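Quick one, probably user error.
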């Protein structure tokens, strides 16, 4: 039996991870989430017998210590974080409080003998890109905003705890990920929601900034494989897609696919936080995949289907 702690497990990515891991009855899953951006509907359905949920803030050590005392965790997925471009730009001090959560998770993991911590870092650590595609080991980290700096600092915590206390880790640098259950804080779900309701789709600036979009199943398949087979020990890996597109063309595609009457409206460019390009080097990730990544067209169709099922 493997006992696994998932922080942020009522969220989009960690919820999908929890659902997948809960399918294996030999896994015991403990989820902690304060529901700040998460939703109980992302938890494994009817909370399987092998799943426990605690509504708590990981930034408060006294609230999560009892979990480490009660369970002997083999692995910890630390995915809880304040997210969303607007929310993190508007609440920089709250973003910095996530440093407490990282420290809590690592101190408790050392103290209670966790075998490996998996940490959700972000493409944002690369900041405004110095090289394209962004490579885990050669692209300089140009993080400037609190959200990106906290992710970068989290990575430094993991390396330091490994060096001094021997705590093993794997860092996932997630690039834009999308799929069912994602909140409208993120561009793909927001555009789709606007298009489905015939509302204006708003874009910051000229829309020529680029992103890549990774379907959630691709993220979960590869991260679970890394966990189960023990790859990338004390290492960092980009998790994303390498199909780069502009935000304007994404908006146009969503309007076309949904047959929406929505208009695309340009707002003034954000003063900061909207990087010009994002494209990962995914050589390390792809070396573990035994199938092609989900195409954007297929991913969007699956997303639309799941939104229709939810609306029915
Ligand atoms: N979705 C993406 O494209 C993307 C890209 C890069 C990095 N990430 C990272 O992946 C992780 C998961 O993000 P997501 O997209 O699923 O977002 P999400 O908002 O769906 O999930 C985050 C979850 O963490 C919870 N949470 C936040 N602060 C908490 C706290 N202090 N204590 C307990 N729970 C807390 C939220 O309620 C939410 O359920 C985050 O660490 C995020 O920074 C996501």
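Nope, works fine. Designed sequence:
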């Amino acid at each position: 039996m493997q006992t696994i702690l998932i922080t942020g497990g009522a969220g989009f990515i960690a919820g999908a991870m929890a659902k997948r891991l809960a399918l294996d009855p030999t896994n015991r899953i403990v989820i902690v989430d304060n529901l700040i951006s998460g939703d109980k509907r992302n938890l494994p359905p009817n909370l399987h017998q092998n799943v426990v949920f605690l509504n708590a803030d990981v930034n408060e050590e006294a609230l999560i210590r009892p979990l480490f005392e009660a369970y002997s965790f083999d692995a910890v997925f630390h995915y809880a974080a304040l997210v969303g471009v607007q929310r993190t730009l508007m609440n920089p001090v709250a973003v910095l409080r996530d440093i407490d959560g990282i420290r809590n998770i690592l101190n408790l993991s050392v103290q209670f003998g966790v075998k490996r911590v998996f940490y959700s870092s972000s493409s944002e650590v690369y900041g405004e890109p110095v090289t394209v595609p962004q490579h885990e080991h050669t692209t300089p980290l140009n993080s400037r905003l609190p959200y990106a700096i906290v992710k970068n600092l989290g990575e430094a915590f993991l390396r330091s705890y490994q060096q001094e206390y021997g705590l093993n880790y794997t860092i996932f640098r997630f690039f834009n990920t999308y799929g069912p259950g994602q909140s409208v804080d993120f561009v793909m779900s927001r555009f789709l929601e606007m298009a489905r309701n015939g509302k204006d789709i708003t874009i910051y600036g000229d829309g020529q900034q680029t992103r890549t979009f990774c379907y959630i199943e691709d993220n979960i398949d590869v991260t679970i494989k890394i966990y189960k087979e023990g790859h990338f020990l004390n290492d960092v890996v980009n998790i994303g897609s390498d199909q780069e597109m502009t935000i304007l063309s994404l908006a146009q595609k969503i309007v076309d696919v949904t047959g929406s009457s929505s208009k695309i409206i340009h707002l003034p460019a954000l003063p900061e936080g909207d990087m010009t390009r994002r494209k990962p080097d995914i050589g390390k990730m792809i070396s573990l995949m035994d199938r092609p990544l989900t195409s954007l067209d297929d991913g969007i169709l699956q997303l639309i289907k799941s939104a229709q099922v939810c609306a029915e």
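Residues 7-8, 10-14, 32-38, 57-59, 79-83, 101, 120, 122-123, 174, 176-177, 183, 186 surround nicotinamide-adenine-dinucleotide (CB under 6 Å).
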